[in-house]
Amino acid sequence: MATREIEVDEILDRGTIVEIFPSREEFRGRLLNGERLRFYIGFDATAPTLHLSHAKNIMLLEKFRKLGHEVILLFGDFTARIGDPTGEISARKQLTKEEVERNVVEWQRQIRPLMKFDDPDNPPKIRFNSEWLAKLSFEEVLYLASNVTVQRMLERDMFEKRIKAGEPIHLHEFLYPLMQGYDSVAMEVDAELCGTDQTFNALVGRTLLKKFKQKEKFVVAVTLMENPKTGDLMSKSKGTGVFLNTSAREMFGQIMAQPDEMMELLFVNCTFLSLKEIGMLLKSDNPRDAKLRLAKELVSIFHSSAVAEKEEQYFIETFSKRNVIVEDVVEKSILAGSTILEALVAIGFAQSKSDARRKIEQGGVSLDGEKITDQAFILDEKYNGKILRVGKKNIAKIVF
RNA sequence: GGGUAGGUGGCGGAGCGGUCAAUCGCAGCAGACUGUAAAUCUGCCGACUUCGGUCUACGGGGGUUCGAAUCCCUCCCUGCCCA
Question: pTM of the full predicted structure?
Answer without folding.
Answer: 0.89
